[in-house]
Amino acid sequence: MEEHDVVIVGAGIAGLATAIALKRVGVKALVLEKSEGLRAIGAAIGLHQNAWLALEALGVAHKLTTTIPPLRKVNVTNIDTGATQQVAFPQPDKHGHESSPIHRKALLEALAEELPVDTIRFSSKLKSIVNLQAEEGSFYAIIHMENGVSIKAKALIGCDGVHSVVARWLGLTTPVNSGRWAVRGLAIFPEGHGLDVDVQQFVTIGKRAGFAALNDKEVYWFLIGQSSKGEDIPHDPEMIKKEVISNFAKNFPTSYLRVVQHSDLSTVTWAPLLFRFPWDVILGNLSKGNITVAGDAMHPMTPDLGQGGCSALEDAVVLGRHIGNLIIKNKKLVAGDQVAEALERYVKERKWRVAKLIVGSYLVGWVQQDGSGWFMKFLRDSILYRHYSRLISNDKQYDCGKLPCVSSSNNELDNDPRKIY
């Protein structure tokens, strides 16, 4: 049986960021990823001020800031009336951070580069979990893999996404369908797209779409619709693209259709938008002994606030901080009640924050798409769009804190990641 200090399930944003946070406090984690390589589903991600603060705490922000244009405003066009409103993003925070779009793959690669080459183990699918209490109150997680390998760890962190095996083991409720779906893709213009840097968004009853330039040759685009109208969409990328152009977005501006037409088919995906009820996050078992979850495994949410990936980065820093403080106290990572208590403190700090984001994301999506009555239009045009920057500024400027400094003199962890104390 292999032995590791910490095992992380999933090499997405949450998993890689958590591994970096642990590395910063002196813990080498093993990351298990069921895919054959880094997954970049979703094509792009918006990094808001809170994400940049987390990336700075992880020591990664400097690798990304030089090539990303900031997002200043969104031009929202009502397809039915032709009217356009400008919606401002929050002003730069006191550190000068602004919202920026980035390739999801570029973010994953930047995170992965910070880890030792043997940290990530691809093609490793989790089969089952056993929580074992050994002598003298020490807790261990035993992970059984589908390839027959068994792994013993002082802590297990599930960062395995919306359909998390670890979350299911903890007894968390299955994420529910929001009633909406999303198609996403990346358009490539070898000669340059010539588009404005401002985000363009288009809304009509039951549908919302838009695009944002990542650089002068690549554009991220999306389309969100009602589930009743999207269940018949084929999952073949070429067919998805054709369905968007000829059916769902046929009345949208030519600028949008042009972007979709230039899609790199390898980036085009369709998926239902799932979320976990906020009360399940607040009241559910987000940790049990030395096992917990982070990212979408803890708090799946709709993408309407653009906070899914950002909050996953926050999770990593907060989790690393609590484990780092434990190491400072004990001079090593000890398997036992203190690890469980550190994970409980992490959960206590995160659950109200992410529950609020789940609610906010759902409400923002609901107001923008679900209804044509005067009241919904009033909420959307006179409240949400007009006051968007002020309404969401606190969420996007949230500071998750710093990682503690764990000096080598205070850290007695052996260089062998398989050693269990």
TrEMBL record:
<protein>
    <recommendedName>
        <fullName>FAD-binding domain-containing protein</fullName>
    </recommendedName>
</protein>
<dbReference type="GO" id="GO:0071949">
    <property type="term" value="F:FAD binding"/>
</dbReference>
<dbReference type="Pfam" id="PF01494">
    <property type="entry name" value="FAD_binding_3"/>
</dbReference>
<keyword id="KW-0503">Monooxygenase</keyword>
<dbReference type="InterPro" id="IPR002938">
    <property type="entry name" value="FAD-bd"/>
</dbReference>
<comment type="similarity">
    <text>Belongs to the 3-hydroxybenzoate 6-hydroxylase family.</text>
</comment>
<dbReference type="InterPro" id="IPR044560">
    <property type="entry name" value="MOase"/>
</dbReference>
<dbReference type="GO" id="GO:0004497">
    <property type="term" value="F:monooxygenase activity"/>
</dbReference>
<dbReference type="InterPro" id="IPR036188">
    <property type="entry name" value="FAD/NAD-bd_sf"/>
</dbReference>
<keyword id="KW-0560">Oxidoreductase</keyword>
<feature type="domain" description="FAD-binding">
    <location>
        <begin position="4"/>
        <end position="358"/>
    </location>
</feature>
